[in-house]
Task: structure prediction
Amino acid sequence: MSNNKFVFWGADSKPNISDGIVGCSSHGFFVSDRFCLPNEAGMATWEHELPDTVLNGTYQNVLDELLTFSYSPQFCIVLYKKAAGFEDFICKAAKIFPDTTFIGGGAAFVNGLDEGELLPDCKELCVLVVNNGDFSIETLNIYNDLLEQVEVQAASIREIRRVRQLPDGEWQDAISFYRDKQKQLGIDKDNFESLCFCDKNRRNLHCSIAGETLFVGANLPDDNSLFLNFISEEEAAAKLADFIADTDCLIFGCAGIRSLIKEPLLTGKRSLAGFMFGEIVHCGKYAELGNMMLAKLKVK
Result:
């Protein structure tokens, strides 16, 4: 076990040293006295050290190492380069440590790459296993529930082909359904963040258009049952500002939330907030990949 500092960085800003540093590229970040916009150069280090064991490599060899632990960690910070294979990993890791809280998410793609950047350098992911220190973890779902339930027909585990409103709505093309809802709620057609789906546990699924289907940012639930969530840009900014105003916190947020915020914000003293391409959430029994949510690690 060693003590490490956590770092977020932007474009062309990956630290040249890795000893004692763990972190990832982010879609911008906020600290108490400055900010870095998405795709701009910049780096910020959280002032507090994490007493952790750092594992890194492929999904399989990290899982193999987790199986050797004789204790259940207090929490794990998990950072990955790209989503392929990650949801299988987090499902297995959460079952190895069912009482452990997992936070973190996907490193933002920077510098024209199709994957994020991590420290320590590794093939697929790194995991900070923390079992010491006095920390608390808080999460935030920024959305308001519209209390509208739908059933979906999936084209794949990440794509929706058709949607029908429950209890007795007719099947509609998924893209047409989403566009109609945007129009009803007064949402600009380029804004895919104010309106999203969630599952029965309120795990959010960000939407975008991919060809003739609606693409979601995390795996669809097995029951194909979803709910609609909505947040205005103004209310999203207010909720985010309140959540990150806390002191002595390391905050992981979704890049989609950052896209909703028109003006940069500042954190409380000794806090650092970065924005990820998908984040780990605890909504049901186990940790899963979700979207449009935030997790806050606070030093007590």
